[in-house]
Specification:
The complex is a heterodimer of chains A (115) and B (112). Helices cover 3% and strands 51% of the residues of chain A. Chain A has one helix spanning 99-102, and strands at residues 4-7, 10-13, 19-25, 31-37, 43-51, 54-57, 65-67, 73-78, 87-94, 105-106, 110-114. In chain A, the strands form two sheets. In chain A, strands 2, 4, 5, 6, 9, 10 and 11 form a seven-stranded mixed β-sheet that branches. Chain A has a four-stranded antiparallel β-sheet with strand order 1-3-8-7, with no helix packed on it. In chain A, a hairpin with a 5-residue loop joins strand 4 and strand 5. Chain A is globular. Chain B is mainly beta and 112 residues long. Chain B is built from no helices and ten strands. Chain B has strands at 9-13, 18-23, 32-38, 45-50, 55-56, 61-64, 70-75, 84-93, 98-100, 106-111. In chain B, 38% of the residues are buried. The chains are: A mainly beta (115), B mainly beta (112). Chains A and B meet through strand 4, strand 5, strand 9 and strand 10 of A and strand 3, strand 4 and strand 9 of B.
Chain lengths: 115, 112
C-alpha cells in the first residue's frame, strides 16, 4: 500500500549512542517532516524538507540532524542520544502544490527509548 | 503563530452525532483549518480541511463560522472506532512550506 514507512518501529539506545531513523514515502511528495510526540502532548516539528537536498529547522531541532539525499527518503539522526530524546517519532509527507487539498500522510511512528 | 483551542475531552454515545469544537480567534486570512485524528499507538490521520466554506467528505463534515474564528468537526454517527484524539490545526505558510502546528487536541470517548 502506498504511504509513509518508518524504520525501525522500536529502538532502545544508551545515552551517548547514535542512530538514524529512516522515513520512506512512495507518493512522490515534495515535502517531508519529522515530528516528535511526548506523552500526553501534541506533535512538535523537529525538521522538515521542501525537496531533495534541502532541509530546514522546525520548532525543536536541537540534538537532531536530517538529510534528504533522495526525494523519497528523509533521515533523522541522533548523534549523541540523551534521555530527553525518549519519545515517539513520526514522519509525514505532503505535496508541494495545493497541500491543503491533499493533507498530510503520516507514518506509524518509531518508539525510541534512551536509557 | 495562530493557535487553536479545543476541549481536552468529550464523550459521545455510539451511533449518535458528535460535534467537536475548535476556536481559532487569531486565524489569518490565508490559514487553512485542518482536522486530524490519532488512534491509540498510531500516527495522525487526515480527516478533513477547509478555508471558508463548509466541507463534507466520507469521514466527516466541517462547519466553519462566518468570521472564521471557530469551526466544528461533525461526525454524523460515532462508532467505537472513532475513539481517538482529534486535532484542530491551522495550516500556516513559513515561506517555503506549509507546516502543521499541533495543539493538545480533544480526546473523544465513544460509549457503547
Amino acid at each position: 500500500n502506498a504511504g509513509v514507512t518508518q524504520t525501525p518501529k522500536f529502538r532502545v539506545l544508551k545515552t551517548g549512542q547514535s542512530m538514524t531513523l529512516l522515513c520512506a514515502q512512495d507518493m512522490n511528495h515534495e515535502y517531508m517532516y519529522w515530528y516528535r510526540q511526548d506523552p500526553g502532548m501534541g506533535l512538535r516539528l523537529i525538521h522538515y524538507s521542501v525537496g531533495e537536498g534541502t532541509t530546514a529547522k522546525g520548532e525543536v531541532p536541537d540534538g537532531y540532524n536530517v538529510s534528504r539525499l533522495k526525494k523519497q527518503n528523509f533521515l533523522l539522526g541522533l548523534e549523541s542520544a540523551a534521555p530527553s530524546q525518549t519519545s515517539v517519532y513520526f514522519c509525514a509527507s505532503s505535496y508541494h502544490r495545493d497541500t491543503a487539498n491533499y493533507g498530510y500522510t503520516f507514518g506509524s511512528g518509531t518508539r525510541l527509548t534512551v536509557v | 503563530d495562530a493557535k487553536t483551542t479545543q476541549p481536552n475531552s468529550m464523550e459521545s454515545n455510539e451511533e449518535e452525532p458528535v460535534h467537536l469544537p475548535c476556536n481559532h480567534s487569531t486565524i489569518s486570512g490565508t490559514d487553512y483549518i485542518h482536522w486530524y485524528r490519532q488512534l491509540p499507538s498510531q500516527g495522525p490521520e487526515y480527516v478533513i480541511h477547509g478555508l471558508t466554506s463548509n466541507v463534507n467528505n466520507r469521514m466527516a463534515s466541517l462547519a466553519i463560522a462566518e468570521d472564521r474564528k471557530s469551526s466544528t468537526l461533525i461526525l454524523h454517527r460515532a462508532t467505537l472506532r472513532d475513539a481517538a484524539v482529534y486535532y484542530c490545526i491551522l495550516l500556516w505558510d513559513s515561506g517555503s512550506a506549509r507546516q502543521l502546528t499541533f495543539g493538545s487536541g480533544t480526546q473523544l470517548t465513544v460509549l457503547p
